[in-house]
């Protein structure tokens, strides 16, 4: 049974790598393993139990409201152009300080990705502004694209990322944290990830200097992307630029670690709805229809449920299938008593999967559903193990030549995605080592 289960898992991730629909592949694999476990091994985790695991995620009161409201808020910020004002406000000053443009571009992208937690979305929003500006400073286009791409993992500390609410829910069930609050998880991840981001930015700057691809290294031999002239004349409205930050600021102020606002009154959904309400006010001043803003929010919420919640549910079904066929128990037994093995598996598995197929979501979700609840058996906390898995997935994506973000940036810069990845690989590998070690030491 174990070997059959392992073969199914390998085939599952191979199909995901080949760009088959991840939700369908995970769900089908989970059902097949659950059926085999029920019929041939007499497992207590039957097909009906596995389906129940799927359904429970669809109505998860801590997970679903967080994801759909964050996605809805993000769509509203895009529609009202508030996100454009924020990006322009942060990016433009870099062009006046040439010697920090490479690490600065990486860190600004990383911070913006926390607020707007879509790697491809932030790559497009920042890339269309920053890459032409860097090329104008005679930075080689491939390095300009790499500087933006290496910052597209900031979403790992965003309350809108699917993993943080998931880890919080698991940790709460394990009685490790007082409530299923994603901000508790984020506060434990924040410092290690911030240090990792700085390390990645500095290492990329060193690589840039070694390859002589920085400011003044080349002549401008290609036309800059269309629309650059418009961006040069873009007038930042500070009020609009601040709006996307408001929900994140409220969440930090209401976190147990800060405590300036009542935690229960300012949950993630509440803060996102406050931000959306402010977005509606902005839309009114923009002479945009309030009804259209509402439609954008609903579309974002719907896409969040479709793209994120159902993926999480499919991963839960897959994990139930692994348990039914006996694979989860075998993996747990293999890692029991060895912190180093568990941490290595959490870091390397999702990282490699993400680097290969451009998304580590499926691997990280499956790992967190199947292995992370058993963190205590390895002498680790749920947050440590789960956070390392999801951070590794984000970093692995940041050195994948097939990730959506790198393809967008390669198109803007007019370069080969593989050339970009060659420059981001060392920075993100070192960042993974730093973050994993710090998560182990500090938490």
From TrEMBL:
Provide the alphabetized UniProt keywords.
Answer: Cell membrane, Membrane, Transmembrane, Transmembrane helix, Transport
Q: Which residues cross the membrane?
A: 24-43, 63-82, 94-112, 118-137, 144-163, 183-211, 266-285, 305-322, 342-367, 399-418, 425-442
The UniProt record lists the keyword Transmembrane helix: yes
Record membrane topology:
Multi-pass membrane protein
Q: Which Pfam families match?
A: DcuC (PF03606)
Q: InterPro entries under this entry?
A: C4_dicarb_anaerob_car (IPR004669), C4_dicarb_anaerob_car-like (IPR018385)
Q: What is its main location?
A: membrane
Transmembrane helix is among the record's keywords: yes
Q: Which GO terms describe its molecular function?
A: C4-dicarboxylate transmembrane transporter activity
Q: Name the GO cellular-component terms.
A: plasma membrane
Can you say where in the cell this protein is located?
Answer: Cell membrane
The protein's superkingdom reads: Bacteria
Family, according to the entry, reads as follows:
Belongs to the DcuC/DcuD transporter (TC 2.A.61) family.
Identification of the protein by name: C4-dicarboxylate ABC transporter
